[in-house]
Design brief:
The complex is a heterodimer of chains A (about 400) and B (about 70).
Chain A (H helix, E strand, L loop, with lengths): L17 H8 L9 H8 L11 H9 L7 E6 L8 H8 L1 H15 L3 E7 L3 H13 L2 H4 L2 E6 L8 H10 L21 E5 H21 L7 E8 L5 E6 L4 H7 L9 E4 L5 E4 H4 L6 H6 L8 E4 L6 H15 L5 H18 L7 H9 L10 H15 L1 H10 L3 H9 L1
Parallel strand pairs in A: 1-2, 1-4, 2-3, 5-9
Antiparallel strand pairs in A: 5-6, 7-8, 7-9
Chain B lengths: L1 E3 L9 H5 L4 E3 L5 E3 L9 H10 L5 E3 L7
Antiparallel strand pairs in B: 1-4, 2-3
Classes of the chains: A alpha/beta (about 400), B alpha+beta (about 70).
Chain lengths: ~400, ~70
């Protein structure tokens, strides 16, 4: 693939300068009224996790009458298993900035906020240097804001709240950011990878973009492949590619694997036997009850227990709750504590039943989707590792630990 | 249906007393709201619950606005 989000200089080259970027791809295309239509025909979906249609979001912002809109290029990337946004900003900052400026032109925004996780130092440096390379009229529209990395700080109302008030916590909706966001103005919050795809669609068109996909799918997508592979890698794959081929492109599995975590901590465990054939395409995945999320594929290595991994993730998500909504603050904390007892072989009678009961009470009961994400992950774990949960809970035994003890 | 601002809600539980037809409380005292249209006969009670919420966290909303 000669033109793609990650095409161009090798990763160890460091950031692509403005001169290199323009030599490879040409200048920033002028504002074009039809860009939103091309985006719609391209079927580009948001790459932050929700896979929301990009053109729909742009039209919602552009149709507001409450002042000049604002664009936020969201590079908060709080998902611990994902690398894609920070590495994209490190290597291709100008592609992100092109996309942000094109989106700003499309919705009528002057103000573009580059919102980057404060821990992602390489990304901050590259984005900063890239803004200084831009001509003054463009530079005047850009401001770089760094946010402490938390799981919720990339949530779009949290991004708006941080830019407005320095508090990276979700707010109640309505209003949604497209209605009232940064400085009370209509605000487009768009993931940085999404904007990079916009920069290419604006140059090469929606037909070109659609042709990149496999089968009926459109375009490419960035995925972070980790777990039982030689090393965690960021790769760009055609959408629609079977999951197994993405894992092979990442070097292949290094051990047998019982399950794959697809979509990150808000995603789902999938039995490996079912996972390998899954197409990496948001639509078909959703129809099967899965999500590509922010493009995380984590292969559970042999010798690692899915119950233990799930309990660890739940503890993390409970800790990362913004603690603003009761069901998330108390319910998720209680679930994580009970899951911790089950995984640690210290379950008290009824723990597993309680977990199952509470898991059904989380979804839809927070201002943001934090409890929904945790509930979805837990439900998938109970499906995929059901027998192992039962063994941990009722017999205080872990078959993985038992096998390891027997082998030594 | 009844809508709720989850950030404002402090789990006082007044709503579940005033309109148990629509609201029950979870193990921590936070409301679980029955989805769907509010029956006409229950609407006055729903409005009392809205007015009686100490945190002003309840509202009426159209079903399409639900999330």
């Amino acid at each position: 693939m000669s033109i793609a989000v990650l095409a161009g200089p090798a990763a160890d080259h460091g950031m692509e300068s403005l001169a290199e970027h323009q030599r490879r791809l040409g200048p920033l295309p002028p504002p074009q009224g039809a860009l939103v239509d091309a985006i719609e025909r391209s079927d580009l979906r948001g790459k932050g996790g929700a896979a929301f249609p990009v053109a729909t979001k742009w039209r919602a912002v552009a149709s507001q009458r409450a002042g000049a809109p604002v664009v936020v290029a969201n590079g908060g990337e709080g998902e611990p298993l994902s690398r894609k946004d920070r590495m994209l900003m490190e290597q291709r900052p100008h592609l992100v900035i092109d996309g942000a400026l094109l989106a700003a032109d499309a919705v009528g925004a002057d103000d573009v906020v580059l919102y980057v996780g404060a821990d992602h130092t390489g990304a901050i440096q590259a984005m900063h240097r890239a803004t200084t390379e831009r001509p003054a009229p463009q530079r005047a529209r850009l401001r770089l804001i760094t946010v402490p990395v938390r799981y919720v700080s990339g949530e779009e109302t949290a991004a708006v709240h941080f830019i407005n008030a320095g508090i990276a916590l979700p707010t109640s909706i309505p209003p949604r950011p497209y209605e009232r966001g940064v400085d009370g103005r209509p605000t487009l919050v768009q993931n940085v990878e999404t904007l990079a795809h916009v920069a290419l669609i604006a140059r090469f068109g929606d037909e070109w973009f659609r042709s990149l996909g496999q089968g009926k799918a459109s375009g490419t997508t960035l995925v972070t492949v980790g777990g039982a592979v030689p090393q965690t890698v960021l790769i760009e794959v055609p959408q629609g590619l079977p999951l197994s081929e993405a894992v092979n492109a990442a070097g292949g599995i290094t051990s047998d694997s019982e399950a794959v975590l697809l979509g990150g901590y808000f995603g789902s465990w999938v039995e490996s036997s079912a996972a390998w054939a899954l197409p990496l395409d948001p639509g078909p995945l959703r129809a099967l009850g899965y999500s590509l999320g922010c493009g995380v594929i984590a292969v559970l290595p042999s010798g690692r227990c899915g119950v233990v991994e799930t309990a660890r993730i739940l503890a993390y998500l409970a800790h990362e709750s913004a603690r603003q909504c009761g069901p998330c603050t108390f319910g998720l904390r209680a679930i994580a504590a009970a899951a911790g007892r089950v995984s640690g072989l210290t379950a008290t009678p009824g723990d597993l039943e309680r977990i199952q009961h509470w898991a059904g009470l989380l979804a839809g009961r927070g201002a943001c989707h934090h409890p929904d994400g945790a509930a979805g992950l837990l439900a998938s774990a109970l499906r995929v590792f059901g027998a192992e949960f039962l063994l941990h809970d009722s017999e205080h035994r872990c078959s993985i630990a038992s096998a390891a003890a027997a082998a030594s | 249906m009844l809508g709720i601002d989850r950030i404002k809600c402090d789990g006082h539980g007044v709503c579940a007393d005033l309109v148990p037809e629509l609201i029950e409380l979870d193990d921590w005292g936070y409301p679980i709201i029955r989805a769907g249209q509010i029956p006409q006969s229950v609407l006055p009670h729903a409005k009392r619950a809205i007015a009686g919420c100490p945190a002003l966290a309840l509202r009426l909303q159209t079903i399409a606005a639900r999330r």
